[in-house]
Amino acid sequence: MKIRFFNVIPNPLSDEDLTTSEAWDANLVLEGNSPYFLSSNSGKGKSTFLNYIFGLRNDYQGKIEINDKETRSFTLDDWAKLRKDNIAYLPQDLQLIPHLTVWENLCLKNQLTNHCSEKEIKDFLEKYNLLDKLNKPVQQLSIGQQQRVALIRTILQPFELLLLDEPFSHLDEENIAIGFEIIDKVCQQQNAFYIIATLGYNYGVTANKTLLL
Amino acid sequence: MIRKAFKPAGNKITLILSTLGTIVGLCLLLIAVQVYNDINIAIKNSNNDQFLVIKKQITTLNTIGVASSSFSTSEIETLKEQSFVSELAPFKSGNDFEVMVIMNIEGSQFPPFSTLAFFESIPNQFIDVKTKDWKWEEGQEEVPIILPNTFLDAYNYGIAPSMGAPQASKSLIGSLKFKLRIKGKQGKTIFYGRVVNFSDRVNSILVPESFLNYLNKTYGNEKQTESSRIIFSTPNKSDPAIASYLKQNGYETNKDQLKENIIQQVTSSLFYFLLSIGLIIVFLAALLFLLYSQIIINKSEKEIKTLLLLGYKWKFITKNIIYLFAKIYGVVTLISFIILIIFKWVFDDWLVNKVDLILPSSIALITFVIGLAFILLFLLINYLSISKAIKKIAQPR
Fold first, then answer.
1. Residue A147: which pLDDT band, with cuts at 50, 70 and 90?
2. Greatest mean pLDDT range, A73-77, B202-206, B259-263, B352-356
3. Whether A99 contacts chain B with CB within 8 A
4. CA–CA separation, B44 and A108 (whole Å)
5. Is the interface score ipTM higher than 0.90?
6. Could you tell me what percent of chain B has a pLDDT over 90?
């Protein structure tokens, strides 16, 4: 998968000085199978960057292409297919459905993609110490636990690109390490790469490229 | 699973009110359509359909000879031109000869009697009863006669009891022959009359046209005289234009024949009234349903966003919300038709007892079609509204 940004300037940042940004108002190509670290202080548009790639927002000047096709020309169905088969996204606010259980939240994704077996899902949960929370409504979990559920849900699909928006902000070092272990494994399996938005930490990962916003 | 994701709208009262409203509205609509349809079919099936006999009102002016009770040629022509008239025929009557009916059957229980009478004739297609003996040729002694049913009733329930004479069935009267003495400018002659049938539509003593022509030529006057009664056929007896035309020209028709017309007018008014009320209630309920669907979407906006984020298509999400309404509409339709069937059962029973009308026993196809059309219309309106809202949520900001 190849993502290209052609002088993209988000409308909310149009008055700001973007000369030092490696992503905004620049020609940028994202491809390959090594991770990208999207780094900046808050308010510089990390979530915006990921939302543009995922088709949640289009309030920008310039042009974005996915596999040489301009994203503004995508229909709603094109986006739905892309989200189901090509790009997985873990948003910062997780977007779990609070009144559904952990299992139901995971099934909601897997029933659509039919990507993992019940055993594979349970293996992920076990690895992330969540198996005992299977039938608990998500709203009864801690933020850290919710982040782990959301990460598992994100990878229950085929993808070429994984977008992660501050996925470990509420996790301890041990769980961050398990998270990366899972991410690396599934990316390898699917020959995919990921873009992770962080507040500047690299979590000890030697990234392919760090993009400063 | 996806349906579990949506939050219930919470306020069940809106949902219950909309459901009840739709049931009441739909029932009114269905009942109105069914009753209107039933009554129309019943009236079409009843006798005297599509034929009216008209005459002029007799006033004092007629009695003193100033006004004529006959229709002039121009009056007949004007009537012929009216849109509600399909076919028309003036009654032909005897002209300048006297008819005396003499009945004296020896050994019979019937008392001998004689009376002055008259003959009229109208073209066969206007006569409601068909009889194979209905013909007369010159030289034939026996003359077939059609009497009005009211004559038979008058005899059986009036004359016979008061005179102590036996009552007579139609077949008994049909077997009797009686003398007809004709007296005119050419002298006298005797024919034998036999009643071959009884008519509901025509209140006159009818003989075949050929016989009447012969009598006029031989004993009376061949000159065409003006008729005092006209029979006409019409595609729709309840056409309000007929009543207003008759009133405007001072013509009259048999009140009984217009009875069905009045029933039909009352039914029509009731039909339109019920239909309007039904429509208003149904559309108010539809609005409440729209409101309810918007509440569901607003309350579940976050969940809908999640589903879109996971890769669900907007159409799939719309279909799953519509499913909730399809279930409600299914129940509404079922209950409405059950109420309709119960109503029809009670109403038919009541109507058959009150008025002598025979109604079709089944629910009319048009009622089914209208019922289903409304439900489909509801679903369509909901679908359009919901899909618009979901698409709006799905659009990149």
1. very high
2. A73-77
3. yes
4. 61
5. yes
6. 22
Beta strands B187-199 and A36-39: pairing type? unpaired
CB contact under 8 A, B313 and A77: yes
B136-171 pLDDT, tens digit each: 998 899 999 999 988 888 888 888 888 888 888 888
Task: Give the separation between CA A166 and CA A38, rounded to whole angstroms.
Answer: 10
Tell whether the model's pLDDT for residue A59 goes beyond 60: yes
Say what the pLDDT of residue B246 is: 86
Count CB pairs under 8 A between chains A and B: 63
Residue B48 confidence class, pLDDT cut points 50, 70, 90: very low
Closest CA to B325 of B1, B24, B3: B3
Written as six digits, the tokens of B120 are: 């009229």
Q: For B102, left (φ over 0), alpha (ψ -120 to 50), or beta?
A: beta
> Does any CB of chain B come closer than 8 Å to the CB of residue A76?
yes
If pLDDT is split at 50, 70 and 90, which confidence band does B385 have? very high
Please indicate, yes or no, whether the overall pTM of this predicted structure exceeds 0.95: no
CB distance from A89 to chain B under 8 Å?
yes
What DSSP string describes B198-224? EESS--S-B--HHHHHHHHHHTS--SP
Q: What residue type is B327 in one-letter code?
A: K
Tokens of A20: 């030092």
Element (H, E) at B265: helix B255-299
A178 inside 8 A of chain B by CB:
no
Q: Do B314 and A80 touch (CB under 8 A)?
A: yes
Rounded CA-CA distance B155/B166 in Å is 10
CATH number for A32: 3.40.50.300
Distance (Å) from the alpha carbon of B308 to chain A's nearest alpha carbon: 7
- Number of structural domains found in chain A: 1
Q: Which two tokens stand for residue B343?
A: 């109503």
Interface check A107 vs B, CB under 8 A: yes
Among the listed residues B274, B280, B234, the one whose alpha carbon sits nearest the alpha carbon of residue B257? B234
> Is B311 in contact with A58 (Cβ distance < 8 A)?
no
Residues B225 and B93: their CA atoms lie apart, in Å, by 8
Inter-chain CB proximity B396 and A58 less than 8 Å: yes
Domain that holds residue A168: 3-212
Mean pLDDT score of chain A, rounded to an integer?
A: 90
C-beta atoms of A112 and B394 within 8 A: no
Among B residues 301-360, those touching chain A with beta carbons less than 8 Å apart: 302-303, 305-314
Question: Distance, in angstroms, between A98 CA and closest chain B CA?
Answer: 9
pLDDT band at B262 (very low <50, low <70, confident <90, very high): low
A60/B contact by beta carbon, under 8 A: no
What is the domain partition of chain B in residue ranges? 3-46+262-394, 92-226
Q: Which residues in chain B have their CB less than 8 angstroms from residue A56's CB?
A: 309, 396-397
Spatial strand order in the sheet of A60-66 = A27-30, A3-10, A60-66, A69-70
Nearest CB to B311: which of A95, A99, A112?
A: A112
Residue B205 tokens read as 């003593």
